[in-house]
């Protein structure tokens, strides 16, 4: 009989970690755990609440391995452990991150001495410390004589196989030759998971997000890969899910993940490509740059990735120098742009331009900020779009290849200049420069809609939604509303809401679809839900109270009164008031507000023929005069 030896078993929560058997159990059921995450869990558990630094983890688990990016290895192992343990990094029960330093096992833990057969070598924390690179295993022991013969046979066969491969494949390194002989299918699509901020400073999140965005942009331009949009991948920021699961959700072949840190004038970025179907590493690289060189880093990394995946494009022009201070202001501006904070975006884009007047992307970002302010009614449109026009033109003078600047110019021609031909020309130029931009296809669908090219507009929005399902979850539903397909709109919006409930505009469009479909109860419910999404409990309560008291018309009256009250202290677009009056079917007031909107060239006037809420005005001469004043081609109802 084998002599019993001592092993260690750790019990925490519903889990049992048997170091001697190299096994993790959940409620008595053995879980499948890869080697590195298991070794890391054993190391953390053995410290029982003490901090284990990232440097120590790298030394213990990877010291004997070469050409390994340990930072990514640690991040991946931690992510897989958290998934196994069902641990939330924001409110951890088991593994706590000590930002910039390492990890601590925080769950109450009980260590138990147990006996394991001699034939199974115990694997304890002490073993891990003395033999960090050994791969523990716990196969069922075979009878001694049979086991020896088996391993001798395997060893002899292995030696013969190696000799055959050496002769057959030539003098190249064996690992390289085997990889080429077993080449996996080409990666054609890639998702860039938001870079981890390892600066130890949460205020650096904008920098990590900004560099992620830049990397996505450069990969889309400098490769033939299908690159998942920023908004689609940002939902996985900080989400410790298995990469294959993320890849399946995003429908991509590969995942690019990494980390970035900035301190003392130096930037360190690490990246690695994971093949989704096999969860295997294909490529890894680390970059160390001074702050003066960081602006060119996303482009350099994108070209390296495109070369590795054999998907690079030929005409790549050298990047223009951008000062670190200007780039930092630009990245902050983009951070606020994605948060729909146009005032702050504008301020930081202007700062970037002051620091470097020839910074084309900052001019383009400034144009987008002004256009955004006009679109949501935060600035009078004439003032905002004139500034947007000037900034977009300046951006294109500096760099005519900026697709976002052509898109900004297309928005100006559509929403303010009412020059449909130039709007379409600029939009098509933007699409030619970046055919994988959901933003560009979305705006082009607007241009087509204004010209009564309804089916083309709908198809273009479908294309935009396919490229980026998470960016504007409401947009395709809105397109169906403008096409008077209310049932299709409701089906589309409800499907999006099942996974993206927390989107204000999604709830708004659902409310509109139900209003025009005649279901006023659902309209009020989603209107209320929209206010709750943005934390406006007062307005949500007012909607509920008004509906209970007087039905849909009482809610519509509350909405009008609310906007009129706001207009006494700040700018409120006359288009907003026109929508309010239209819901109450107050014809004269609606027409008066639309005429005011024409005088200030309100951007949403271009859709007044498509807006179902204005259908009751189509026979009115004043309404027809507005159509002629704008220069819109009359819709079928006017022929």
Q: What does this 3D model show about the protein?
A:
- The chain is of the alpha+beta class.
- Among the domains are: 126 residues, Winged helix-like DNA-binding domain superfamily/Winged helix DNA-binding domain (Arc Repressor Mutant, subunit A, Orthogonal Bundle), CATH 1.10.10; 101 residues, ABC-type transport auxiliary lipoprotein component (Rossmann fold, 3-Layer(aba) Sandwich); 67 residues.
- Helix content is 55%, strand content 12%.
- It is built from 26 helices and 14 strands.
- Strands 9, 10, 11, 12, 13 and 14 form a 6-stranded mixed sheet that branches.
In short:
By secondary structure, the protein is α+β, with helices and mostly antiparallel strands.
Task: Give structural attributes.
6-stranded mixed beta sheet; single chain; globular; Arc Repressor Mutant, subunit A; alpha+beta; 639 residues; Rossmann fold; disordered N terminus
Task: List the SSEs and their pairings.
Elements: E1 5-12, E2 15-18, E3 23-26, E4 29-30, H1 35-47, E5 52-53, H2 54-62, H3 70-85, E6 95-98, E7 102-105, E8 110-116, H4 125-130, H5 144-169, H6 174-181, E9 189-192, E10 196-197, H7 205-222, E11 226-227, H8 230-234, H9 243-250, E12 254-263, E13 266-275, E14 280-290, H10 297-308, H11 324-338, H12 342-355, H13 360-375, H14 381-398, H15 403-417, H16 420-433, H17 438-450, H18 454-467, H19 475-482, H20 486-497, H21 504-516, H22 520-533, H23 537-567, H24 574-583, H25 587-599, H26 621-630
Parallel strand pairs: 9-11, 9-12, 10-12
Antiparallel strand pairs: 1-2, 1-8, 2-3, 3-4, 5-7, 6-7, 12-13, 13-14
Helix pairs in contact: 1-3, 2-3, 7-10, 7-11, 11-12, 11-13, 12-13, 13-14, 13-15, 14-15, 15-16, 15-17, 16-17, 17-18, 18-19, 19-20, 19-21, 20-21, 21-22, 22-23, 23-24, 24-25, 25-26
């Amino acid at each position: 009989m084998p002599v019993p030896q001592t092993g260690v078993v750790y019990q925490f929560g519903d889990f049992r970690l048997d170091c001697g058997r190299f096994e993790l159990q959940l409620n008595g059921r053995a879980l499948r755990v890869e080697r590195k995450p298991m070794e890391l869990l054993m190391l953390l558990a053995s410290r029982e609440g003490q901090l284990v630094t990232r440097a120590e983890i790298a030394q213990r688990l990877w010291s004997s391995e070469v050409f390994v990016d340990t930072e990514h290895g640690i991040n991946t192992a931690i992510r897989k452990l958290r998934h196994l343990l069902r641990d939330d990094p924001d409110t951890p029960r088991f593994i706590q991150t000590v930002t910039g330093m390492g990890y601590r096992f925080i769950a109450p833990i009980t260590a138990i001495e147990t006996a394991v057969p001699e034939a199974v070598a115990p694997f304890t924390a002490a073993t891990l410390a003395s033999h960090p690179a050994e791969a523990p295993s716990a196969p069922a022991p075979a009878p001694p004589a049979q086991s020896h013969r088996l391993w001798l046979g395997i060893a002899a066969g292995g030696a013969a196989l190696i000799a055959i491969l050496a002769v057959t494949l030539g003098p190249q390194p064996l690992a390289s030759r085997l990889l080429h002989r077993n080449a996996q299918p080409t990666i054609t699509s890639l998702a860039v998971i938001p870079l981890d901020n390892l600066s130890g400073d949460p205020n650096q999140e904008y920098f990590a997000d900004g560099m992620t965005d830049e990397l996505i942009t450069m990969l889309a331009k400098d490769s033939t890969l299908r690159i998942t949009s920023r908004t689609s991948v940002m939902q996985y920021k900080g989400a410790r899910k298995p990469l294959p699961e993320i890849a399946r959700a995003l429908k991509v072949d590969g995942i690019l993940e990494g980390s970035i840190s900035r301190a003392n004038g130096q930037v360190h970025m690490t990246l690695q490509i994971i093949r989704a179907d096999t969860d295997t590493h294909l490529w890894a690289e680390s970059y160390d740059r001074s702050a003066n060189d960081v602006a060119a880093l996303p482009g350099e990394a994108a070209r390296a990735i495109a070369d590795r995946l054999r998907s690079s494009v030929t005409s790549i022009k050298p990047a223009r120098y951008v000062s670190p201070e200007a780039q930092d202001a630009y990245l902050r501006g983009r951070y606020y742009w994605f948060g729909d904070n146009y005032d702050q975006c504008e301020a930081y884009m202007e700062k970037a331009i002051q620091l470097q007047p020839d910074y084309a992307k900052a001019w383009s970002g400034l144009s987008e900020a002004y256009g955004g302010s006009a679109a949501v009614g935060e600035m009078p449109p004439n003032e905002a779009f004139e500034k947007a026009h000037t900034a977009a033109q300046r951006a294109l003078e500096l760099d005519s290849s900026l697709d976002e600047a052509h898109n900004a110019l297309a928005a100006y021609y559509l929403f303010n200049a009412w020059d449909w031909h130039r709007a379409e020309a600029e939009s098509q130029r933007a699409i030619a420069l970046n055919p994988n931009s959901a933003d560009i296809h979305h705006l082009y669908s607007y241009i087509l809609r204004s010209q009564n090219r309804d089916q083309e507009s709908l198809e273009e929005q479908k294309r935009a939604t396919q490229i980026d399902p998470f960016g504007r979850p409401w947009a395709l539903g809105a397109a169906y509303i403008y096409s008077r397909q209310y049932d299709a709109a409701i089906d589309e919006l409800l499907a999006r809401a099942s996974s993206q409930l927390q989107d204000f505009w999604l709830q708004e469009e659902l409310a509109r679809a139900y209003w025009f479909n005649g279901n006023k109860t659902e309209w009020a419910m989603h209107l209320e839900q929209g206010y709750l999404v943005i934390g406006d409990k007062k307005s949500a309560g007012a909607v509920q109270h008004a509906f209970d008291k007087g039905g849909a018309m009482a809610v519509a009256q509350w909405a009008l009164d609310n906007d009129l009250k706001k207009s006494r202290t700040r700018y409120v677009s006359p288009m907003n008031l026109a929508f309010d009056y239209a819901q109450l079917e107050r014809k004269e007031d609606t027409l008066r507000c639309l005429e005011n909107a024409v005088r200030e060239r309100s951007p949403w006037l271009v859709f007044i023929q498509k807006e179902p809420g204005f259908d009751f005005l189509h026979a009115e001469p004043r309404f027809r005069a507005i159509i002629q004043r704008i220069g819109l081609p009359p819709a079928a109802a006017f022929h």
